[in-house]
Amino acid sequence: MILSILILLSIVASTLHAATKEKIIAGVVFSGDLPFYREIHEELVRKLFDQGYDQKIRFIVQRPNPDTLAWSNAIRKVIAYDASLIIVYGSGAARAALYESSSIPIIYAAVYEPERSGIKGKNIRGVGYKVPVSSIIRYLRKTGNIKKIGVLYSKSEPSTQTQYNDVKDVCKSLSIDVVKIPVKRPGEIGERLRLLSYDSLLLTSSALINKYFPDYILVFKKKSVPLVSIMEGLEEYSLITLSTDPRKQGAILAKNLIQFINNGNIDSIKNTDLLKNSLTFNMKLAIELGLDIPVELLTESDRVIK
Questions:
Q1: Is position 7 within any domain?
Q2: Among 71, 87, 243, 276, fewest CB within 10 Å belongs to which?
Q3: What is the pLDDT of residues 37-86, one digit of tens each?
Q4: How big is the CA angle at 304 (ends 302 and 306), to the nearest 5 degrees?
Q5: Which residues, 6 or more positions from 268, have their beta carbon under 8 angstroms from its beta carbon?
Q6: Each residue's pLDDT tens digit, 153-211
Q7: Same domain for 289 and 181
């Protein structure tokens, strides 16, 4: 009788061990704790659950502060947990993952123009996106006389530097001056906003900037100039927001992850670049700033804040 019980316990233990062994451990590192990244991850988890893959993977989620050292520490931490896959949101965490590991497969999301931003390698695939900077500047010019646009970006996030270069190229053809506003630390945001001269401001998709910009909104409001953004989350302050859909990013990421679970090979995943974007126009803010309200913006916007 005792022998039978011992054999049964051994079988159960072996089964549990095998089930645990089959489950993939994936480290997930956010470039910052932003609603945009949270939506991507929530959609990823939802799609995995709907398709019955939630029991085949265990996530170790890290939401570090948006700085180089914190990203590297978060990547090292998930590697120490024996992660067989690293998932990253944003170019800051993506670059850190590439630096910390050349062998562990990496899947990214929310990276603007990955190839041009240097987010590439044999062990990395994912979901990139492109926002037509020319469109957001064209919309902005219809609201008033724009001559000097400031571009706030992060030195530590390569995609945001690519965005700055795109704005510079577009503005050159339109004879608009561009004020370069790079930041490394949160405190620099308020300092640069206060000291520099510009008649409009563009926020890149930097995790650092989108996380801490609201802390300095009173400094910015003293300028009484329009703000435009290329990431969801700050529509309350932004006159125009042209952004990729985080839910769509999460859905494609889930497909990529399912492919990896089934094949165990990063080479089976094809890079995807999302080109469709959502346009939000804050008409209430336009009225407060005394700006023109073009019919084109009202008719072409997916959302109008009144």
A1: no
A2: 276
A3: 999 999 999 999 999 999 999 999 999 999 999 999 999 999 999 999 99
A4: 165
A5: 259, 260
A6: 999 999 999 999 999 999 999 999 999 999 999 999 999 999 999 999 999 999 999 99
A7: yes
Q: Is 305 helix (H, G, I), strand (E, B) or coil?
A: strand
Other CB atoms within 10 Å distance of the CB of residue 81: 13
d(CA 197, CA 181): 11
Cβ pair 206, 33 in contact under 8 A: no
Tokens found for residue 103: 């062998």
The DSSP 8-state label assigned to residue 81 in this structure reads T
What CA–CA distance (Å, rounded) separates 86 from 105? Answer: 6
Same domain? 121 vs 142: no
Provide the pLDDT for residue 273. Answer: 93
Quote the number of domains for the chain. Answer: 2
- DSSP secondary structure letters along 232-293: TT-TTT-SEEEE--HHHHHHHHHHHHHHHHHH--GGGPPPEEE---EEEEEHHHHHHTT---
Residue 2 included in any domain: no
- From CA 86, how far away is CA 148, in angstroms rounded? 41
Structure tokens belonging to residue 233? 């989350």
Give the containing element (helix H, strand E) for 162: helix 158-173
Q: Helix (H, G, I), strand (E, B), or coil: what is residue 158?
A: helix
With H, G, I as helix, E, B as strand and everything else as coil, classify residue 57.
strand
Stretch 264-292: mean pLDDT: 95
The DSSP result for 164-192, as a single string, is: HHHHHHHHHHTT-EEEEEEESSHHHHHHH
Contact 232, 241 (CB under 8 A): yes
The answer on 87 and 228 residing in a single domain is no
* Helix, coil or strand: residue 196: coil
> Does the structure show a pLDDT above 70 at 21?
no
Q: Does 4 map to a domain?
A: no
